[in-house]
Amino acid sequence: ERYEEKRQRQQHTTMATQKSKNKKTSNTSTTTKNGSSSSSSSSSSRGDNNEKQTGTTKTRNNPLAIITASLALVVSIGIGILLQTKEISTTTTNTNTPKKKRTTVLPILDEFFPSHSLDNAWESYPLLSTVHSSPLFNAASSPTDPTTIIPTVHVTSQPNITQTSINRRINTFQRIFSLSNINEIFSNPNLVHLEDYKVAKKIYRNNEEFVGMVPEKYISPEDVTQLFNMGGFSLIVNAMQQRWKTVGQVARTLQLETGAAYVSANMYITPGTYDARKADSSFVSSRSAFEAHWDWMDVIVLQISGRKLWSVAQLPIVEYLSTRDVKRKPTLHEMDVYMQKEHRYREFLLQEGDALYIPRGWIHNASTVGPDLVLTSLKEEEEQQQEKEESIEYWSEPSLHITFGIEHMCFTTYEGLILYAVRLFHAQKYGRTGGVAISKQACPGAALDISWQMILQFAISDAVRRGCTVTEEEEEKETSTTLVYNRHDIGCQLRKSVPHGDAWNEIYSIIQNQQPQPNSMYDTYVNILDNLNPTLEHAAQFVHRVQTLGNEGNLETFCIPGETTFDILYCPAQHVVSTLSHVKFMQELQEFKIFAKDNFDVVVKEWEKYLVGYRRQGWQRDDAHLRGVHHEPPTLLNEFYDLS
Q: Taking a C-beta distance cutoff of 8 angstroms, is the pair 456, 568 a contact?
């Protein structure tokens, strides 16, 4: 009753405030009517979620349900603040929108990022898609340099957009997953902490950020509730595409639209900044689960409810299009570079209904923030104190977002395509043996002979990891540094995803006409082959690298299409140089290049067949997990609003 009374009072205040603003800016009542519709329709959608609760008695008996039952109601209280009914700018900020538009539709990506705005951003720079008028943090108190604003597209850049359309997008985001669904996830008694989910918070030690996690493998629902409500810990649930049907629908459709090998999904719930342990109704400045980091996969973040403050690098400070096996924690020096204002975008708030794209390799960080910080940027000074006092529930609202990981691994990049071409070449030349390079007798423990196929594949993989590095140049008489890398180097080209399907072929064709580069699939493929000159030393260096991964227990972070065992790991790296002939290696390399160019169509056709089988196996695995938690296998979406 208290929450409902608060919600109604908040609605009344919001409508009155909006009506007052409208009188100042317009002689018509159109905006006011839209504002009323916005509040009522949004509150109605929140109410629909709340009806799923099973009653007071059941909630009291389930501590996790306390989070769900109370906080799901809290979401509706702040809707008038989040959904302003004034007209949002229809311009796109700093997104290098292509002059020519593609005609092939990508229903999900085009809904998340309207006006084909993701086409140019893909693997090139981060992109924010927002339904809110002012996502910039602290925008009111400091001047804004346009070059420091994250490339942004407003949902209203589409023709004839209405507040109803915005509400529809927000409501559909919440149909993917919402706070009211948490109890069902944790009704599975077989969930293992640190594997299926994590309870974590960012901590500091010697001025360095770390992730602090509870070490136990099983945490009771009661303890999860305590850690979340009282300890400021975040809750992260992994592999949501295997636990919730609608999440699986979006993930599977994104997989086909992006041409990725796989799309995973994780859920992140971070508590609000109101500190319930203190009697003076105070707030902590921020709360976060992770330290600043970069991912080895492209990510698309959907903010379901609440809000989070994000900081994103302008350039890949450490690794451009990072591969999984080079993923690591940034050093203190790299973090210092990231914190320099010329190397990261202005901080911005990601709010419900917003989407964010970050390419792999870009450092980023996110946290919930309190009214002392946010109100400074969004409210007039005289309104701040009253807003803070009246909205404890509003600032107690947790942030819920889902991150979809666009995973290419070794399959859907140019590295994967060319490694698969090596496999086809040696199958044609040598048959199943692949051509013996080093006898298994020379490698104690090896079950099979070491083939020339493996030697050549390792030499190419070494080029991927050494030929695309980000370096620093000190500026004269300046304390800052300039980051230098060339995304057109062969190593960088090998890391890029292959344009797969009609839409991406069209996108790359358009970009090629605007920026003459070898951007089409065939041109890039041939350009890589012409400039690919690995040596036996490169192969030996990579043998050592993979052996190190194996010794560290991280061998699964590296893969070769179609290969499941690496007998070469039993060979000392020096064997590759001392045993093999450089002349023979160069002969193999040249013959492969000729084969790969002459048989491009065959290579692509066989590679695509291999991908179909790989994806089918992943979907069958996910379907089995979904059936295990009483969910039907997901169907592909023809459009985002078909979500079931």
A: no
